[in-house]
Design goal:
- The structure holds 2 protein chains of 2 kinds.
- Chain A has 8 helices and 36 strands.
- Chain B is mainly beta.
- In chain B, strand 21 and strand 22 form a beta hairpin.
- The chains are: A mainly beta, B mainly beta.
- At the A-B interface, helix 2, strand 2, helix 3, strand 29 and strand 30 of A face helix 1, strand 3, strand 4 and helix 5 of B.
Chain lengths: 557, 479
């Protein structure tokens, strides 16, 4: 009873009178207990383990449409593409073999005349004068077989270094009767002033620019007539003849604008020259059978005189293919080759002469088909080959040019043709993670009648091959369907899809890779046995993508 | 007597276990039906709290914080490796497995500086006033973006679908709110109320439009061509922040600079806005009542420090490098070609900048509540809440049980579905000592104890002084 009462009282006390405090204490205890449940270890990032990261990524790498121009434009900067109205393509290699201006071939040397004027006169009356005249001729110094008729001077000077013993004032009048400017003959007056001492010396020059000088001839000699007159003024003193005046005249720096006459036999200094055939230059290996290659040798002659060209030697040289040297010979090469020249009525114009060497009149076809890196030619030329004097002309700007043009129509066959390029590729810096596998997808839509194989070689810094991409039997490029003659136009494109998968261990070999060698093995259709023509609108559409499964461990410390 | 003791102790213990006072939501659900708390009027403007008048403890009358993540909890992302060792591991795969198409990570914060309210006209009118500092930030992480970053685009190729990053972005707002409210009992059955709120914006980042996608074409005829689409509109008003573009002529993002000055930041009163809350309560009978409210109807006009960027409908496809121009070129030329190609691709995503002022709406909410009064001390309720953001409605549901233990002690427990989780057990507590009231509530008390194990970590607590809430009958204690 007592116990129960105490318990009841305790209960009453505890729950009735202390209920609020009880709740508070209970609350605090439970809160403290619960707080201890928060796990700080869940946020201890020092214990964070490495995270395996395995992304699978698919990206496109390449999409290009290549025409033959794109490939060869970057491959070879020396050529010019030409196409006709059917878009059929020609490769043209051109080189200027020789070119010379007339004023460099035919020059006028400085001429020294040195006329002496000796005369005797009576004493002129004071305030009056006496004149005496002397005519002379001057023979120009020219090449042995030159004989000028007319010279139009664009620059030049007539110089006088006079020394005289005339002891009176006077004047000297110089006349070149056949040198005219605007129809007026060259006449100059030189004052002669006696100041009490002898000899009297006078230095003077006259500009001859713009004068047309007509020459006389004795045989082939070119003669220039000259007239001097001396006028003595009377001063009341007696004269003391005989007198002598030394003219010491000279023609210097004579440049002509036009020269007419017989200009002699000149040999043009044509050194051996070379046409580099760049398309074959980067060829490691390859055979061609161009159907119709042509070599054009062109002359452009503005000299008004006959010229003969001698073609001594034309050879095709290959460093790769036998027989390594093939001469170009045949009936198409004339000996000598007389080229055209402009007539007098065509003065200022250029006469063109073309020599065409093709498969019908020369050995140009077998010469080209060794894929030569260059063609060497040895040519010479001579003016007035007959040696019979005739009237020639040249202008200062007249030029005689010889060029050679190699024309390669993209028509024929090719096989075992290898193209190669090198691309820098540092595997370590390019791939930030390990590759478990990678699958390349190559789609080629080929509009060329060319098939082939491509290979990518992964090489180290010493170009030692580490690995190659493609299966040797994979032929990624299949020829478009060629058409039939005479156009040989492709009938339809050919599309191929090639997938190449590499698994992880193989990628490990590329750790030291620094370059990728891209090598293409090409043939025209049917392994180079079918004749094809290449048109400018043919294209190769190339798509390359890759899907990679990567793997790396991401650390957090 | 014993039953009462045990029930009370049980509830207290239950609450204590589940409450650590760490998290809350701006307009949390649990408080909505806690009539003893004046702040319950904020979710239902027609609700008249108990008492004749009150004022909030300055700066401590309502502190409301919530972290939410609709996709994953911390322990999904970082957890122990179990039996292997005691190290922690990152588990992006588990995070990815949890994710939905759009995933939101947000933080909401509300700090009431000043509040008071009073009843008039025989308690048929209720006026209230408050000044509150509000901030929220919500980051949308599309599942496809996470998938792409973690696993690459290989899966998208296999499934032949585009990686959709729609609504990727950050929406942030910080503003002062000055609220004036009134509630009126129109009839014994019908009460209406509302708040008019003057808003002063401090900072805002708004991704109004963010429609970005990446498609990898794995069809037979192509080699994984990548097509990117972008239609983005971003509006910002952040004092001290400057977004720089590069010098190439393309409006590309280059760098971000912050030069924060608190004085300038908090004294910026130039971005004004207005919002209204409306509410109504209908008492069907002594047992059932229903209420509905619409909150935060309005927005802010941003005028200062505005930097907006638009990238309208850009689309670009990358199908590989055009190798023709690379053939036989030296590496220096190739590098330049790659740079030129990169520039030409990115120029499609030009950002057009403007400094025009703009309007940003608040995130409107709708509350619909039904309550059943069991008796004077016990009440149950059901709340349906609709949140509107990113042009989508997001629903949540809450069931509550309210118990009035005494005139000085009120308890509420709740169970909610929101942020795509059902494991949200909430609780609320209001203790009154004289006019002084302390309250605390959380829509997910478990989240407070083990935040790493829950997606929602809300907390709301505060202190008020309430006068005129007791009747002689209510002064009787329960123990």
């Amino acid at each position: 009873m007592y116990k129960r009462k105490i318990i009841m009282n305790i209960n009453q006390m505890f729950f009735k009178h202390n209920s609020k405090w009880t709740m508070v204490v209970l609350l605090l205890m439970i809160i403290l207990f619960v707080q201890s449940c928060i796990k700080k270890d869940d946020f201890n990032f020092d214990k964070l383990a490495q995270l395996p990261y395995d992304p699978n990524i698919a990206v496109p790498l390449v999409h290009s449409r290549m025409t033959i121009k794109d490939v060869l434009d970057d491959y070879d900067h020396e050529h010019v593409f030409t196409e006709d109205n059917t878009h059929f393509l020609y490769l043209i290699y051109e080189r200027s073999v020789f070119s010379q201006k007339a004023e460099d071939l035919i020059t006028i040397s400085d001429q020294n005349v040195n006329t002496n004027f000796n005369f005797s006169i009576g004493t002129p009356p004071n305030g009056d004068s006496i004149t005496t005249t002397q005519a002379s001729t001057f023979i120009l110094t020219t090449a042995v077989d030159e004989s000028f008729d007319t010279m139009y001077i664009k620059a030049g000077t007539l110089n006088y270094n006079i020394s005289g013993n005339l002891d009176h004032d006077g004047k000297i009048v110089i006349t070149l009767p056949t040198a005219t400017k605007n129809g007026i003959p060259f006449t100059q007056v030189i004052p002669y002033n006696y100041s009490g001492t002898l000899p009297v010396t006078i230095n003077t020059s006259f500009n001859l620019t713009g004068y047309k000088v007509a020459f006389n001839h004795i045989g082939l000699q070119t003669i220039l007539p000259m007239t001097y007159s001396v006028t003595v003024y009377g001063d009341g003193t007696p004269v003391n003849p005989p007198y002598s005046i030394t003219m010491s005249e000279s023609f210097t720096n004579i440049k002509y604008q036009k020269l007419i006459g017989y200009l002699g036999q000149k040999t043009f200094s044509i050194t051996n020259d070379t046409i580099f055939v760049e398309i074959f230059r980067n060829n490691i290996h390859g055979y061609y059978d161009f159907e119709d290659p042509k070599l054009h040798i062109n002359t452009f002659n503005a000299y008004g005189l006959p010229i003969n060209v001698n073609i001594g030697l034309i050879e095709a040289h290959s460093d790769v293919n036998t027989p390594f040297i093939v001469p170009v010979t045949g009936s198409g090469i004339p000996v000598p080759w007389t080229i055209n020249y402009p007539s007098f009525s065509q003065m200022g114009q250029i006469a063109t002469t073309t020599l065409l060497l093709d498969k019908n009149n020369s050995t140009i076809k077998p010469a080209i088909n060794i894929a030569p890196q260059y063609i060497v030619g040895a040519i010479s030329a001579q003016s007035n080959p007959s040696g019979i004097p005739t009237t020639n002309f040249v202008l200062d700007t007249s030029r005689f040019t010889v060029n050679a043009q190699l024309e390669l129509p993209l028509w024929g066959k090719a096989w075992d043709f290898i193209l190669q390029d090198t691309i820098a590729f540092d595997y370590q810096s390019t791939t930030p993670m390990d590759v478990e596998w990678a699958e390349f997808k190559l789609i080629l839509d080929n509009g060329f009648p060319i098939d082939g194989k491509c290979q990518l070689y992964f090489v180290d810094s010493d170009y030692a091959v580490l690995d190659s991409l493609l299966n040797p039997f994979q032929q990624a490029l299949v020829s478009a369907i060629p058409g039939s003659p005479p156009d040989y136009r492709v009938v339809s494109n050919t599309k191929t899809t090639t997938k190449i998968r590499w698994d992880g261990p193989r990628w490990a070999h590329l750790a030291t890779c620094k370059h990728i060698l891209v090598r293409a093995y090409l043939n025209t259709a049917n392994s180079g046995t079918t004749i094809v023509k290449i048109y400018s609108d043919y294209g190769l559409d190339t798509r390359l993508g890759v899907r990679v499964q990567g793997h790396t461990m991401v650390g957090f410390h | 007597m014993k039953k009462r003791h045990s029930s009370v102790i049980f509830l207290i213990v239950l609450f204590s276990i589940f409450y650590t006072g760490k998290s809350y939501a701006q307009h949390d659900r649990t408080i909505d039906l806690m009539e003893s708390i004046p702040q319950s009027n904020y979710t239902n403007p027609s609700q008249m709290p108990m008492g004749k008048w009150y004022f909030g403890f300055p700066a401590l009358s309502s502190f409301n914080f919530a972290y939410s993540n609709t996709a994953f909890k911390y322990l999904d992302a970082v957890h122990h490796r179990g039996l292997i060792d005691d190290s922690l591991m990152l588990d992006p795969q588990r995070v990815l497995n949890q994710m939905h198409k759009r995933n939101y990570i947000g933080v909401d914060l509300s700090e009431e500086i000043l509040s008071f309210g009073f009843k008039a006209a025989k308690r048929k009118l209720f006026f209230n006033f408050s000044v509150t500092e509000k901030a929220s930030a919500r980051f949308c992480l599309p599942r496809d973006m996470f998938h792409l970053l973690w696993k690459g685009n290989g899966d998208f190729v296999d499934e032949n679908k585009k990686a959709d990053f729609k609504w990727f972005g950050l929406n942030e707002v910080h503003y002062h709110e000055i609220s004036l409210g009134i509630a009126k009992t129109l009839s014994p059955k019908f009460t209406v109320g509302g708040h008019v709120k003057l808003l002063v914006g401090l900072s805002n980042v708004r991704f109004r439009k963010s429609d970005i996608s990446l498609y990898t074409d794995g069809s037979e005829d192509l080699t994984y061509d990548l097509t990117g689409n972008s239609n983005v509109e971003v509006y910002t008003s952040v004092p001290g922040m400057t977004i720089y573009k590069n010098d190439t002529g393309y409006n590309k993002f280059d760098s971000l600079k912050f030069d924060f000055d608190p004085k300038t930041y908090f004294k910026n009163f130039n971005n004004k806005g207005i919002a209204v809350d409306l509410g109504a309560t209908f008492k069907l009978n002594d047992k059932f009542s229903f209420s509905a409210s619409v909150l935060d109807l309005g927005g802010i006009k941003w005028k200062t420090n505005v930097q907006n960027f638009k990238d309208p409908n850009a689309s670009v496809t990358f199908d590989g490098v055009d190798i023709v121009s690379f053939l036989y070129q030296p590496d220096s030329v190739r590098n330049q070609l790659i740079q030129d190609m990169t520039d030409s691709l990115t120029k499609h995503f030009d950002l057009v900048e403007s400094k025009e002022s703009y309007w940003s709406p608040l995130s409107t909410k709708i509350f619909v509540t039904g309550t059943y009064t069991i008796n004077e001390k016990n009440k149950i309720g059901l709340l349906v809440r609709e949140d509107f953001f990113n042009r989508t409605a997001h629903q949540s549901f809450t069931a509550t049980y309210n118990r009035k233990f005494a005139s000085w002690l009120y308890l509420t427990v709740s169970a909610s579905y929101f942020n795509r989780t059902f494991t949200n057990v909430g609780a609320g507590l209001a203790i009154l000592g004289g006019p002084f009231e302390f309250y605390a509530a959380s829509d997910n008390v478990m989240g407070a104890i083990w935040p790493e194990n829950f997606r929602n970590v809300p907390i709301h607590f505060g202190m008020n002084f309430i006068f005129g809430y007791k009747t002689p009958k209510e002064n009787k204690a329960i123990l």
